[in-house]
């Protein structure tokens, strides 16, 4: 019988309210007219960090769930927020270490199949999941390119946590958004994050703090991956 132990270091009501398990709705904070991400405004004030949930299994079969990364045994990240989507992230996107080696064959295959820049695919994976194939977002997006269940189903993905299936399908989806938006990369990335309907509604990148942060950061990562070769 599989035994389960939960090792969460935070048990307060406020902590649980901000946990990825409790919060199932993705909120998009809207910027005021003329407001940028760098403006110091209560609209974009800092918030408590979201909790990642790590799963590991001990030798005796006990499953451990914790908000702290296990140090001495394999683990899976069960809940995770889009890596590049937090408007108040303290990550320096100009210096954060790049992932230039993982999934080279798969990314090259996806780029060739869908006429995409491999550096762009790598930048989106980095922004979405930080190259963690097993992550699941609060709203249910899965895997390296964070495919929503309905998108994965539409694209015929049997297992969205499988790296090759996820990258091939995510790249196909990204390519379709680029085609839909006449190769405008900013609009395609905004649609990838916020949905094509919101891009159409606002006739451009939506005034959501998360989406504007995402578009800006993917662009930075894209340039850096291009330079890295």
TrEMBL record:
GO terms for molecular function: peptidoglycan lytic transglycosylase activity. Belongs to the transglycosylase Slt family. Residues 1-17 form the signal peptide. GO terms for biological process: peptidoglycan metabolic process. InterPro entries: Lysozyme-like_dom_sf, Transglyc_AS, Transglycosylase_SLT_dom_1. Residues 107-210 form the Transglycosylase SLT domain. This is Lytic transglycosylase. Keywords: Signal. One of its GO terms (cellular component) is membrane. It comes from Rheinheimera nanhaiensis E407-8. Pfam families: SLT. SUPFAM superfamilies: Lysozyme-like.
